[in-house]
Model the fold of this input.
Amino acid sequence: MATPARSNTAGSPRSLLTDRATGSRVPDFFIVGSPKTGTTALYRMLRRHPQIYMPDVKEPQFLAADMAPCEKLAHKPRERMYPQTLEQYLALFDGATPAQRAGEASTFYLWSRSAAERIAELQPEARIIAILREPASFLRSMHLMLLRWGVEGEKELRKAIELEPLRGRGKRIPRHSHRPQLLQYSDHVRYVDQLRRHHAHFPRERVLVLIYEDFHGDNDATVRGVLRFLDVDDRAPVDVMNVNVTTRTVRSHEARHLMYSLRNPQTPLARATKAAIEAFTTPGGRRRVGRSFNDHLVGVEAPPADERTMLELRQRFKHEVVALSEYLDRDLVSLWGYEKIA
Done:
């Protein structure tokens, strides 16, 4: 295996980011997105390879400045899990050996308008992996995910997309939404624009574009192709994992916020309530109650997709699929069933 590339390659452009990273291990490859396309399965399969190192934190998102949470929620415990400084970010890769490829998976780097440039500043020789999914089914899964996160409050996908103009002006944002910038759904499926941002900094041979349906249909072949792309042994055993995406949604946002406030109390009343619960229950009992509460009151199976909405989305984004087919020189119009969409 070739020695992993470093950020201080002779002749590479310098920046404050690379200067500050001198002497530290930086990642060699990045799974940049999209979310809800099997990236978690890919991350888990790759990190089991002996020649690959990926940190426990799957989505550091550090190089996407436009992924920062809104200021009023930036200091919540959940946000403090993620690296806040370059030193904290680079520390994620301290465990990598010189013979390993180090990588990370932040699925909003593809959507981000700043991540590609910052990746190039940190690691000019980076290898980029993107996974793309048919726009309508992707947006439905994305909407369900944002509902579960509490970023979205509108339970109907059609209405949520109709709110894009208002939300772009800061209106109709859910009260607890910590990343309202993600509510511009159309931006998430502008695949050609996203790929061009990365191709502006990396040659095409260093950007591997996978299609979700290929990955879903043949895990083994897809992962071995990724291993060859990363220049590691592709003959190693691959633990095949399910790449199906979740279809659960939120029954009650109020119940979700109640559970979160008890886990991460921010007010004297919430802290007192949590202390009282802990005084009269065991850790195992609290976990069982929490799982039951989450399963029955917070998370529920989403209803079937509304076919009218899905058709409208395919009509709206067909030009994106046509453009992507031309850009990648692959017939995604037929693969994704858009040939009969008016």
In short: The chain has two domains: 27-140+186-244+318-335, 248-301. The beta strands are 29-33, 52-53, 101-105, 127-132, 207-211, 248-250, 299-301. Residues 2-14 have pLDDT under 50 and may be disordered.
